[in-house]
Design brief:
Chain lengths: 241, 182
């Protein structure tokens, strides 16, 4: 079962990076500014906005007037879905890429001699890898959307830091060392709230550490009722590894 | 190139007596160099009443994941990629590959699904490995056997397989590239 997630899965990031290394693609990323405001579709539901008193003069509104929201804004809970649809339409129609069945946010583009490029989208961030021709073709994204300049070879993609060297054979790293350095051990008498906050922090490392998968999942099963010091030991042990 | 999935279950080891289940899928080339594609470690969503129930339940989960991955990989590379599933449960191995039937009905459904996947050649081969060599072991136990750590350190998967269900090849496997892997 593939839930219709609008965001790139972690395994797809690894997949994209490793495939790019094997096929000698260059990696780069796009970051779209104020993405949710760039959705093309109008809101399907009727949504009214009640502006703050001090902002009313901007809209020439009387005190009891409301605004009708036409397009999604930040803070509208389904704004992310609207942007995903806009971005997906752009990737399909303008860059001619097809989404993969296991992850609707991972797209591929095939040329005459096989694969020429891969693209993963995570909200407003896009991670791409491809040939020279693909690099030119995807410049369209930067024209269609208002975005920051393209970043080459070194970027952070929702967790792991991706780095690819330009020297052949182009060694590549996907790591979270900078993040791990920030983790601290828990005192044995830590409160449950502190425990939950640290376990979430540790879980983030799971993106690059399959060997911690079990410890992370077991820590996630702890609830207020079952919480006791041995769980703290288990989490600390995971941090130390 | 082939896709290899390891599945494992550790029966009733959690605080609430539920079982911890894990699988890991690898893309392996001819010389055994491996890349971790995906992994999962989670608690069983339903009560499994025996060691084998846990194993067969996650054998199914590993297959579902690997099947989807293989579909996409085949699209990406435009060639057939064989899928192998490895498990350390002798009982599961026997029940999937031979005709014996478990008594629990829910289990029977899981087994039937696994068996059908084998018979339709959706799984190219099923192998039995020892617990110490099962890479998914680390995903179900806090004190792991070290097979996963070895894989991560060396990037090579040369797990010895005790027993295979050998089926004649369906199509020629995807040629391995000579470019060094990740």
């Amino acid at each position: 079962m593939v839930p219709n997630l609008a965001t790139l899965r972690q395994r797809s990031t690894r997949w994209l990076v490793s495939t790019s290394v094997v096929l000698r693609f260059r990696l780069f990323s796009h970051d779209i500014n104020q993405a949710y405001l760039q959705s093309r579709d109008k809101l399907a539901r009727t949504l009214y906005l009640y502006p703050r008193h001090e902002d009313r003069h901007l809209f020439d509104l009387t005190d009891d007037g409301v605004l009708l929201l036409v397009r999604p804004l930040y803070g509208v809970c389904d704004a992310g879905d609207y942007f995903f649809v806009t971005l997906q339409r752009h990737v399909r129609d303008d860059i001619l890429m097809t989404p993969l069945s296991s992850d609707p946010a991972l797209y591929m583009r095939k040329g005459v001699n096989g694969l020429v490029g891969l693209m993963g989208t995570f909200d407003d961030d896009c991670l791409l890898g491809g040939t020279d021709e693909f690099q030119t073709a995807t410049k369209t994204t930067l024209r269609v959307f208002e975005a920051k300049p393209r970043q080459m070879d070194e970027m952070e993609c929702v967790g792991p830091q991706v780095k690819i060297s330009q020297r052949l054979p182009r060694p590549c790293t996907l790591d979270q060392t900078a993040y791990v350095a920030l983790l601290t051990l828990l005192p044995t008498d830590a409160s449950y709230e502190r425990f939950t906050s640290v376990r979430t922090a540790v879980a983030w490392v799971g993106h690059t550490r399959p060997d911690l998968g079990c410890a992370i999942n077991k820590a996630a099963q702890v609830s207020t009722a079952t919480y006791d010091p041995r769980h703290v030991h288990a989490v600390n042990k995971a941090i130390k590894v | 190139m082939q896709l290899r999935a390891y599945a494992d279950a550790s029966f009733a080891t959690n605080d609430d007596q539920s079982s911890q289940l894990g699988f890991i899928t690898l893309l392996v080339d001819g010389s055994g160099r491996a890349h971790v594609l995906s992994f999962s470690s989670r608690k069983s969503r339903r009560v499994v009443r025996s060691v084998m129930a846990g194993d067969v339940y996650f054998f199914g989960a590993a297959f579902d994941e690997a099947y989807m991955l293989r579909h996409d990989l085949e699209q990406l590379y435009g060639c057939h990629i064989p899928l192998t599933i490895l498990s350390d449960s002798k009982q599961l191995f026997d029940v999937v590959t031979r005709g014996s039937h478990p008594t629990e009905k829910r289990l029977l459904i899981d087994v039937a699904a696994a068996r059908e996947a084998c018979n339709r050649r959706e799984i190219s081969n099923v192998g039995l490995v020892t617990s110490d060599n099962n890479i998914a072991d680390s995903l179900t136990k806090v004190k792991p056997s070290g097979a996963l750590e070895l894989l991560l350190a060396t990037g090579v998967d040369r797990t010895p397989v005790e027993q295979w269900v050998i089926q004649p090849g369906t199509a020629s496997p995807c040629p391995t590239t000579d470019i060094p892997g990740v």
